[in-house]
Write a structure and sequence with these properties.
alpha+beta, 6-stranded antiparallel sheet, two-stranded parallel sheet
Length: about 160
């Protein structure tokens, strides 16, 4: 069972970081990732480590708004993230593309909503609007997912 999960700004404990993330992401959703319940894994790009797998056991899942992607996508998610694993976090695109709108994407670097949008749209063929992946904020991806027929679930 796979989920796309979104983290709200209230989950960030450091007030200054929360403010910067909220301003940078242009709203209150500050992070997104995939959660694979069967493998107890989280998949995303994180600022301090880039693209990687993390264990679910170290996570408060109540901090996430999650949508069910079903059972058929786990293998595709794992394959995609295995190919991207170790890629660096793209702080520059986060600033230039998502916030400033310049579209200066640097290859082989990702931020959370960029990699999540890319796999949903281009690998799993979800009916999301056409966007340049590096211009999609976590808030924008959340709004795209809400507009689909995916069911919200409580983890």
């Amino acid at each position: 069972m796979a989920y796309i999960a979104f983290q709200h700004a209230i989950a960030e404990k450091k007030p200054l970081r929360r403010l910067l993330l909220t301003l940078g992401n242009q709203n209150e959703i500050i992070h997104c990732e995939f959660i694979l319940a069967n493998n107890s894994l989280r998949l995303s790009a994180w600022q301090n480590s880039g693209v990687e797998f993390r264990e679910v056991k170290d996570t408060n899942l109540k901090q996430f708004i999650a949508y069910d992607l079903g059972n058929g996508v786990d293998a595709q998610l794992l394959e995609y993230f295995n190919q991207k694993k170790g890629s660096e976090y793209d702080t520059m695109a986060l600033i230039t593309d998502m916030i400033a709108g310049f579209n200066l994407k640097r290859n082989n670097r990702y931020f959370c909503s960029e990699i999540c949008y890319d796999i949903l749209k281009n690998q799993l063929s979800y009916p999301l609007p056409e966007k340049i992946p590096s211009s999609v904020s976590p808030q924008q991806l959340y709004e795209m997912i809400v507009a689909t027929d995916l069911q919200q679930v409580y983890l």
